[in-house]
Write a structure and sequence with these properties.
Strand 4 and strand 5 form a beta hairpin. The protein is built from 16 helices and 10 strands. The protein is 47% helix and 5% strand. Helix 6 crosses helix 11. It is globular. It has one domain: Glycosyltransferase. The chain has a 3-stranded antiparallel sheet. A 3-stranded antiparallel sheet has the order 8-9-10. A two-stranded antiparallel ribbon has the order 1-2. The protein is mainly alpha-helical and 441 residues long. The structure holds (2R)-2,3-dihydroxypropanoic acid. (2R)-2,3-dihydroxypropanoic acid binds next to loops.
Amino acid sequence: MKEKLLETAKSVLLKNWTGTFTKPAPNLYPHQWNWDAGFIALGYAHFDWPKAKQELRSLFKGQWSNGMLPQIVFGKEKDAHYFPGPDFWKAHEAYAHPKNAVTSGISMPPVHGFILWRIFQIASKNDLKDSRAFLEEMFPKVKKLHEYFYQYRDPKNEGLVYIRHPWEGGTDNSPIWDTVLRGINPAELEIPSYKRQDLQNPEAAKHRPTDLDYDRYVYLVDLFRRHQYDDDAIYKECPFLIQDPLFNATLVWSNECLIKIGQEIGAEVAEIIHWNELSIYSFNEKLWDEDRGIYNAYDLRNEQLIPVFTNSGLMPLIGEVPTQEQAEEILLKLESPHFGGKDDQYFLCPTYSLQSENIDFQKYWRGPIWINMNWLLYQGLLRYDMEDMAAKVKADTLQLIEEYGFYEYFDPRKSSTNNLACGTNQFSWTAALCIDLLMEA
Ligand code: DGY
């Protein structure tokens, strides 16, 4: 059973391999995406070390001179149907855009530090010299990315960085963004004309974000390109400036792993230690919700917390941000009817509280289970020795993949008569993280 699943997972990655990078999925996502590439590299590290390195090298070829690592590095495929493409982003007008790559103009959750450390642990068993050389090559690039976030996205110097677009958070139509996005009213604004391509995908179309969501996404991109991606100018005008717990949790875990990498290769890490201490301190001071036992997001534009129950609020576990006591509160949340961890009717872990009135079990980031979130949650639970819940998250994850295939996301309802598979099939990070879960030591 395990062997078959493993072989199929590998074949998904190899089918999506373009020769220089791996597409997140064959049709819907035809270019290279930032955090996808990180998870994909981890999958490859278990069976094809050269491709793991190439995946990250290809992504970092798109790194901007100010350190920003773009959400998309566009591939060369001429007939790739994707909106927004390079002509819409106009990111090449930015002073920092690289000369030898074509990219979008926002970033994504910085998973690369912890991915790098983890792939080193896998690859060093076979080739210590080469895997250490790869750490040496990548360390300054990942550090520069973190430097970008702390320099340009942390205006109050509190160690919590903001995102300025839902796509940057990676959880495109998460309910976390709702209140802020409601303030962007397309009927009153000039929205450039555009044509969605994602609805051409017959499998995924009904689960995708709405047209109203897209108008708002496009409005923000237009604002960025008007300012030619100048961070200070965007900060002054952008209505969407959010400190997101998932995004900052990936930053913290990656900081921690960069510190370990620096120690491994003899590089200076004092600055990273300082960043990370400040981030963890502010996370708990500002985003921890004592009453609800979960981390909130914060709307920096309107200076208010965003108390919405999503599983992003559980993710600080990965960076050991919570104390043991706080982590136990988080575990209680996971077991509670919000996430259904003690209830046999649901697979873990829905992205949005099961008790939310407007949960949509099949719509993108508004309820379904995503495999990367489950993988992160699993790692976080292990850090606190919460073995039983971790084992349940892992078992549910593998069961969904085994029963339904390598889908993009899954309806959590065990009793549903619907097919639980959602979005597009042959999804690369589902395959990559399945490989990691099956192969972990
Ligand atoms: C999309 O186009 O759906 C992506 O999620 C943006 O990153």
